[in-house]
Amino acid sequence: MLAIFGGIFDGDTKTERIGELEAKMVEPGFWDDQKAAQKVIGEANRLKTTVNPARAFRGELDDLAAMLELVDESADDPDAESYQQEVIDTLERLQPKLDALELASFLSGPNDSCNALLTVHAGAGGTESCDWADMLLRMYSRWAEQAGYGVEVLDIAPGEEAGISAATIRISGPNAFGYAKAERGVHRLVRISPFDSNARRHTSFSSVDVIAEIEDDADIEIDPSDIRTDVYRASGKGGQHVNRTESAVRLTHIPSGIVVTCQNDRSQIKNKATAMRTLKSRLYEKQEDEKRSEMEKFYGEKGDIAWGNQIRSYVFQPYQMIKDLRTGVESGNVQAVMDGALDPFIHAWLRAGGPTSRKSAADREFGDE
Predict the structure, then answer these.
(1) Residue among 273, 301, 289 nearest 360 (CA)
(2) Which domain holds residue 278?
C-alpha cells in the first residue's frame, strides 16, 4: 500500500520549476520590473501549494512505514497492541489528507489554479427564477467563504419584483476555478412558491456560468475599436455615492457579442479595468471552447435555461432532495446545501472525470413531478 501511495505524488517536475523560479528571485535586478517579479512570485507560490502538502504527506508515509516495521519486530512485546493501535490511528488521520491530495491531482487544467468569475442568470420562471438566482448566489458565496476564498460582487442586476436577474462574483484563492467550474450548468428548483397565493408547486431554472480569471498579460489581444463602452449609474443596494455618479461600466465586444458589466467600485476607472479583465477572460474561454470540437464544450453544455438541460435538481416540496444528474450524488439535507455544503457534489464531479461525467437528464432525473 505504501509503495502505491509513494508513486502517486510525483512532484519532481514542479520542484524543479520552483527551484528555477527561486533562482530568478535572487538574481540582481529582479525587482526592476515589479509586474514581472510579482508574476514569478505568484507562480512559485501556486506551485508550492501543490508540492508542499504532497511532500509533507510523503514524510508521514515514511514515518508510518517505520511504525509498521516496529510492529513487525515487536510481536512479542507487551506494548505490541498499543503500537498496532497507533498505526490504526495514524491511518485514520492520513485518510482525509490522502483524499485532499487525490482531489488536487484532478486539478490539472491550465487555468485550474486561477480565480473564478461565477455568473448566475435567472431563467424560465419569472419572479420565481429571480428569487432562485438570488438563493444560488447566496449558496455560492457561502461555499466560497467556508472554503477560505475571497468573494467580491462585481455586478448585480435586481429582478423586477424580487431576487436578481443576474449577478457576477469573483471567487479568489488557490484552485478557485478548478473547483467552481463543477457548478457550470442549469440548476432546477421545485418548491411551493412563496409568491403564489394558492400555494402551488412551481419549477424554476437558473444557469451558472464559471470562467477562469486570466492574467492581464495573457495572449488575448482586443482591438479598442471593437469595444463599445457605456457608463451608467450603479443600481446596487445602498451605495448612495455610486448612485449619484455614472461609475458603472458596460463593455460590449462587437465581433463576439459578449457583454460584461462592473459596478462594484465607486471609481469608473477601476470598474472599467475590472470589466476589461473579465472581457479578456470570457474571450479566452470562448477561444478555448472553439478548440474543443471533439469533446462536449462547456458553453454548449448548459443549453437553454429550462427543462431538460439541468445538471442538478433541488426539490424542497413535497419532499426534500438535491440530486446531481451527472454523478447521481444526492443529499436530503437541503438547508446545509443551500448554506454552502457543496463539496460532495464538486468532489464527485471531479472524481468522475469533470466535463466527461455529464449524462442526460432523462437518464439521471428522479420522479419529482
Answers:
(1) 301
(2) 224-291
